[in-house]
């Protein structure tokens, strides 16, 4: 069984470790997003180890509609299929059903929708999501939920959240059943529930109280970073996180920028994930301690320096800004790959520094210093 142990706290910020069947996760942690079992940008699992990745995140919906979870089970699960021996979190598919499926019908039993790839009809409910994730054999499975729009009206959000609570009870029951079966790949699979409620703080808090009673392995805050302001997101976290169990890991889904992460850690978040570092990297946008840089910028054409002086990522250890810019301009895949590797290393290294600051008891100073550096870089880049 998993064990979550808080090592240090500073205000609401937590420094912890989470023991799982696939290894111990040091938190706060950033999960590197490999939607279909790979990080976009030609990044291998060997690369992930080299850049300090602790947890890889894959997507239930995408793996179900393309290649198929049953085929992956034949290979012994996602860990063996993608050759990764550290923890994997699979999200439930709920968010993709609501963001990708053009035509969908939500019922109490689940959601009827069409595949975004070829239009074929699919049904997914709590039991189906758990079965797919069990076939994948991930370390942590996310409960199947509805992610209502942040601008949805109050009545709709309340009905949606009530249904998500009922779905969570069904997820828990189905996972217990699956973990007891003989041919289940990972009988120690963990279940995280998801708090929803758009930007209605009372609905959020009531929902957090309700799901906290279910004694799950961890708890996520979902449905943020989908259109509301950063201030609204931070306010919801201030209100909701205290209503979730402090002795369980807390996961802020799909967030975000380095500044969002620092703010999230301060509010008690353990787990983060976001496509920003890989997506931005594929477009030549790289993160540094002084903000973002656009590698297509002509000022880097003759620049012999690495993306960031002192960075130990595979790109910065070997290549110049001029060379990386040349690759990107020539549409050479290596340029994209090097930028993605740099960005993921930057995020993983940021989390390491956050953990060190919490260990040393000076996270507040560290956060202030980092945010000032990002802000200064933003102002300078506007001038330059």
TrEMBL record:
EC category name: transferase
UniProt keyword Zinc-finger, yes or no: no
Residue ranges of every copy of the tRNA-guanine(15) transglycosylase-like domain listed in the record: 13-373
Residues involved in Zn(2+) binding: 311, 313, 316, 342
HAMAP family named in the record: Q_tRNA_Tgt
Family, similarity comment: Belongs to the queuine tRNA-ribosyltransferase family.
Protein name, as recorded: Queuine tRNA-ribosyltransferase
Naturally occurring in which organism (per UniProt): Blautia ammoniilytica
């Amino acid at each position: 069984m998993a064990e979550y142990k808080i090592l240090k706290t500073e205000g609401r910020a937590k420094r912890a470790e989470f023991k799982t069947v696939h290894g111990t996760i040091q938190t706060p942690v950033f999960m590197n997003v490999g939607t279909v079992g790979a990080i976009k940008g030609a990044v291998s699992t060997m690369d992930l180890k080299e850049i300090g990745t602790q947890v890889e995140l894959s997507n239930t919906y995408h793996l179900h509609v393309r290649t198929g979870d049953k085929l992956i089970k034949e290979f012994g699960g996602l860990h063996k299929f993608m050759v990764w021996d550290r923890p994997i979190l699979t999200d439930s598919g709920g968010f993709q059903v609501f963001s990708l499926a053009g035509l969908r019908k939500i019922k109490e039993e689940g959601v009827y929708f069409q595949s975004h790839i070829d239009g074929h009809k699919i049904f997914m409910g709590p039991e189906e999501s758990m079965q797919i994730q069990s076939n994948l054999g991930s370390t942590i499975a996310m409960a199947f939920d509805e992610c209502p729009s942040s601008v949805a009206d109050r009545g709709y959000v309340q009905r949606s959240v009530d249904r998500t609570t009922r779905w969570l009870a069904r997820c828990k029951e189905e996972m217990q059943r699956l973990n007891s079966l003989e041919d289940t790949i990972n009988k120690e699979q963990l279940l995280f529930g998801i708090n929803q409620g758009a930007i209605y703080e009372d609905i959020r808090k009531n929902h957090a109280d309700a799901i906290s009673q279910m004694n799950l392995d961890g708890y996520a805050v979902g449905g943020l970073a989908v259109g509301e302001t950063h201030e609204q997101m931070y306010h919801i976290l201030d209100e909701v996180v205290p209503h979730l169990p402090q002795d369980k890991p807390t996961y802020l889904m799909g967030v975000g920028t380095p500044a969002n992460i620092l703010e999230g850690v301060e509010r008690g978040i353990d787990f983060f994930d976001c496509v920003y570092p890989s997506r931005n990297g594929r477009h030549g946008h790289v993160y540094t301690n002084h903000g973002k840089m656009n590698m297509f910028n002509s000022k880097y054409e003759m620049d012999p320096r690495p993306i960031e002086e002192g960075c130990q990522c595979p790109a910065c250890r070997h290549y110049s800004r001029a060379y990386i810019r040349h690759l990107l301009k020539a549409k050479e895949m290596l340029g994209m790959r090097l930028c993605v590797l740099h960005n993921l290393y930057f995020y993983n290294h940021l989390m390491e520094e956050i953990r060190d600051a919490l260990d040393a008891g000076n996270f507040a100073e560290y956060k202030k210093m980092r945010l000032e550096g990002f802000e200064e870089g933003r102002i300078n880049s506007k001038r330059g």
